[in-house]
UniProtKB/TrEMBL annotation, chains A, B:
InterPro entries: ArsR-like_HTH (IPR011991), ArsR_HTH (IPR018334), HTH_ArsR_DNA-bd_dom (IPR001845), HTH_MetalResp_TranReg (IPR051081), WH-like_DNA-bd_sf (IPR036388), WH_DNA-bd_sf (IPR036390). It comes from the Bacteria. Keywords: DNA-binding, Transcription, Transcription regulation. PROSITE patterns: HTH_ARSR_1 (PS00846), HTH_ARSR_2 (PS50987). This is ArsR/SmtB family transcription factor.
Amino acid sequence: MDYVGTALAEMTMPQISPLAGEPIERADAERLAGVLKALADPARLRLLSLIQSAPEGEACVCDLTAPLGLSQPTVSHHLRILTEAGLLEREKRGVWAYYRLVPSAIATIADLLTPPRKRATKKAR
Amino acid sequence: MDYVGTALAEMTMPQISPLAGEPIERADAERLAGVLKALADPARLRLLSLIQSAPEGEACVCDLTAPLGLSQPTVSHHLRILTEAGLLEREKRGVWAYYRLVPSAIATIADLLTPPRKRATKKAR
DNA sequence: CAGCAGCATCGATCCGCCTGCATATCAGCA
DNA sequence: TGCTGATATGCAGGCGGATCGATGCTGCTG
């Protein structure tokens, strides 16, 4: 799987219609599914939660392996997937790599799932 | 995978905290991930979209195989997963099985993903 | 400049799942 | 009752992914 990457960005821009009025395009479905796949994992959901609730809203790998009970390589793997999906951003300070939530990434996904009544009235299309 | 079933119902009731303040529990993470897994598939996203945009908001299997380009057993399989996840409801009328979206199921998921500031102010917990 | 610590990557294994074909069920109809 | 059509289920192939141990890389630090 590689189409995930800027997947979120690609979706928010062209304003795709997930569960909106008209049937979703196959390409859009694959992009949305790609991002949802990144979310659809217990370990990754907990990672997002842990990072979000961390002191400065950020956390390094070494802080996350213990709470999850997973090996460091595995945690690093999950963080990579979340980052490529556009949900996390990585900042390396010294030896540590700090991860934090991308501001409104998850909210964007929530919006995409939310029925049209609350979203922009899709006019021209 | 079997824990998905009334997964959505179980989640909405106890009011789990997905990406809210405190770190999510492993059990909650697994339930949420279960429902998200049901969503994280191009074919199933298109199914939801097709059903939602159908004439009466409902559709039978025979109406869905062609647009998806998948075999009837496969479509039936996906519909089963979506139904077990609590996203679809099935009604059999005669020989046909009509599927329709569960009213606010997807909106519930969107709410669970949306940060706490917009959700119910988690009081007692 | 060694030595060390934090992370990422690689290779391998194991498991889950998407898909289709074949088949079983079930309702309506002659 | 026997046949036909719409769905559901069983079975199996094949691929993607979750996980870990080993290893490579890169900044600190003494």
